[in-house]
Amino acid sequence: MTEPHKAGDKIVPASSLNPDKVHTWPHLVKVEFIIGLIALIGITVWSIVIDAPLEEPANPAKTPNPSKAPWYFLGLQEMLVYFDPWMAGVVLPSLIIVGLMVIPYIDTNPKGSGYYTFRERPFAVGTFCFGFLILWIFLIVVGVFLRGPGWNFFAPWEEWDPHKVVALTNVDLNIWIAQTFGIDFLRGKVMAALFGLGLIAAYYSTGVLYYRWKSKTSETLQKLGAVRYGIVAFLFLTMMALPIKMLLRWTLNIKYICSLPWIGLNI
Amino acid sequence: MNLIQFKAQYEELRKLIVDSYVWKSIFRHGYKDTARNRVLMTASNVFLHLHPSKMRRHGIKISYTWCAGGLTFLFFLILTVTGVILMFYYRPVAEYAFVDMKYLQFDVPFGMVMRNMHRWGAHGMVILVMLHMFRVFMTGSYKPPREFNWVVGVLLLVLTFLLSFTGYLLPWDQLSIWAVTVGTNMARATPLLGHEGPLAEQMQQLTGVITPRYDARSFLTAGTIVGAPTLLRFYVLHCIFIPIAAAVLMIVHFWRVRKDGGISGPL
Fold first, then answer.
1. pLDDT per residue over A108-121, tens digit each?
2. d(C-alpha B106, C-alpha B100), whole Å
3. Nearest-CA neighbor of B118 among B244, B239, B241?
4. Residues of B with Cβ-Cβ distance to A128 under 8 angstroms
5. Which of chain A's residues have a Cβ under 8 Å away from the Cβ of B43?
6. Of the four listed, B8, B15, B58, B166, which is most buried by Cβ atoms within 10 Å?
7. What is the pLDDT of residues A21-50, one digit of tens each?
8. Is the separation of the CB atoms in B200 and B194 below 8 Å?
């Protein structure tokens, strides 16, 4: 964070900080012109050679299987497998946008401004790369190339069989625990809700516990402060909920952690 | 006429034009390669004036910027030009939309190339915006004093997605309406505001308006399904509302780049 100017501070003109300057004309304009020309030629040749897709006329009575959103939303569509639509389609995308916007206000690390570095900001770069490359780009690739009819997995060389049946044995977490360990009181509606909400509270409270544990010794956490840390922890844990739910679905066939059907709330 | 005579005549003609009253009213200075002229080339040209007249040496390195931001803007311009040309031939009416696509394909001179450039350019712009965001994050360029410009950038990212998404519907083929159906269907699960979202029933009892006809999804689709009213709504959003919003934010974005000390870089 830049501190506001104090009364006695001498204001240094920006140009004297870095005398290593060049004229925009011709040095930058030249680069822009050449790169722009290459891009224009590229898109023109591409457009002459490859036609944009155009399918049959719109027919509201004939639903294709699968129905895919535009490719850049397929990461979000993939999330529909693991979350309820209100989470995957509304809450999590909104949090992605808000989360991106708050980055400059919660990243108080003054290092690594204006140059490439991993060593000076491992958490920021690591988290962003995980979110962008794995949870966004990778899921788009999965959605474009590996999802077929019924949103089932198909290898690229496999034929899309619209009649492929995948046994859905997904159960909610409380039922899974009840079945596996014979704990029958978890089957009740109220107990299930309390159990689910409790688990979610416990999940988010790990952020609080980590703060209590480390804030005395960690300089980074002290600089961050409780409010900023809270936002970082909430966004980070929410982001990690996606891979956690993916793992639970793949390994244990678990559908929801918490289900409150009477208000239509499943998490 | 020998070469020397020709050269003399050419020089005379050139002087006549360049020294004329009209020429000097358009171009205020000559083309001499002096330091003063190099500054004037950017400072006195309305388009180049987006740049500072001098800039830091590393700012012209392609390995630093990847040219992603500038190319995004170039693609926006390509899309504006090709989009306006397409508007001459396209009617946003359910009966005509698909027919007009065929008209562009088979009858309009260079119609298919224009459509291809618009379609592929849109994909290119989405990719370039994401690359630009990735580069800006990796170089820590959102750090002070550029926090707010990152926020503007995130809004531009969202607008780019929305521009591409609203354009997706316009060809009015199977791909269009079902991709948009998938996208807009998520809105019906919006908490409180979608008729199938959490707490929708309670909201319905309270306000009486959260029904399939009046909820978050019908606000997007202008009806209960993706139909003719949706097409007009998306057309207006795609051609007028979002481009203007994006243009305004781009002005802010570029202006802030200049005001925040030019392109980011190591201090």
1. 999 999 999 999 99
2. 10
3. B239
4. 137
5. none
6. B166
7. 899 988 999 999 999 999 999 999 999 999
8. yes
